[in-house]
């Protein structure tokens, strides 16, 4: 591990946040002598960020913890274009009303994880529509265009991926890297921003912004990327069998969010505690050394700490209580997903699809055939089994980790 002198880079290194740095020595020296203003950008393609975005939000939190100033840049302008990085096809174009609504939803998590005030290290939320919407196209072409060559733009992975697969890359998307570079320049001029943060897939875009600002204004900027986060089995971080693990409670119940972290692979516990929580490093060393069934205690700490940060302390307590009632006591936790059974009853297949444990009737049949469907802990083997709730609520389970409640309509 590289020995850094600044509190900022030492903290980021110890917590596993650093993948690449454009000028490690220069940034380390800058962070020792002044407050560094840094930003990360978020396009408003949905009404919530997901777990895959959480590492970058924690990066802004670490920056503030080390005595520096974070900027959360909302992509009100760039969302209208769409970032082709890592995408196989063009994004659906969103209306301005939808983008504004999505930004309002996304903003919630930042207000939980960052401190917003007027101090030197108080976080700021900025919208790149403030300058991108004002750009005259000809002015942009004349002032910024000469600093980009098509030859180099064609070498970026976001472009090569589409071309290699013979999938269309629109001229609109082709301009995204220019706009992101322009964002860095504008933030440097408007807010004194010196550092751009991002995932490893954003390295090229970050370097573009550094070079553009140096050529146009002679300002030295820096870039830092985080490692590509995958789970120990190689899966992309932030995805579950049911899709994205959303940070906002409107899109994912507290219990499901908590349970995602509780189900972490044993091999990932220490790494995730470093990146996604504020648990002290010496305590993490102790927790990640646990073996056998004892590692489950570390997973509960992970689930509680992340849920507390993202959803609040009450949400974490409720989710753990639900898990305890469901797993330890065999009861029906109050925070489990619920599906209401019609008065005339239903089949086990109807219930599995209705509560969301199976995406289709065919998937429900395969779950039953594999012995994964249970009613009150008893495996169901007959796909035509009828369910009535004359005797009260029933716990429906899919495998060992997914549980819900069937209630009378």
Automatic annotation (TrEMBL):
Q: Does the keyword Phosphoprotein apply?
A: no
The record's top EC class is ligase
Catalyses: tRNA(Tyr) + L-tyrosine + ATP = L-tyrosyl-tRNA(Tyr) + AMP + diphosphate + H(+)
For binding ATP, which residues are annotated in this chain's numbering?
239
Binding-site positions, L-tyrosine:
39, 176, 180
For this UniProt record, the keywords arranged alphabetically read as follows: Aminoacyl-tRNA synthetase, ATP-binding, Cytoplasm, Ligase, Nucleotide-binding, Protein biosynthesis, RNA-binding
Transmembrane ranges, per UniProt, are none
Look up the EC number in the record and give it.
6.1.1.1
Q: Which domain of life is it from?
A: Bacteria
For this chain the motif 'HIGH' region maps to 44-53
| Subcellular location per the Swiss-Prot or TrEMBL entry | Cytoplasm
For the motif 'KMSKS' region, give the residue ranges: 236-240
Which Gene Ontology terms cover its molecular function?
tyrosine-tRNA ligase activity
* InterPro entries per UniProt: aa-tRNA-synth_Ic (IPR002305), Rossmann-like_a/b/a_fold (IPR014729), S4_RNA-bd_sf (IPR036986), Tyr-tRNA-ligase (IPR002307), Tyr-tRNA-ligase_bac-type (IPR024088), Tyr-tRNA-ligase_bac_1 (IPR024107)
The similarity comment for this entry is: Belongs to the class-I aminoacyl-tRNA synthetase family. TyrS type 1 subfamily.
Q: What is the protein's quaternary organization?
A: Homodimer.
Relate the protein's function as given in its record.
Answer: Catalyzes the attachment of tyrosine to tRNA(Tyr) in a two-step reaction: tyrosine is first activated by ATP to form Tyr-AMP and then transferred to the acceptor end of tRNA(Tyr).
Q: Which NCBIfam families match?
A: tyrS (TIGR00234)
Q: This protein is called what? A: Tyrosine--tRNA ligase
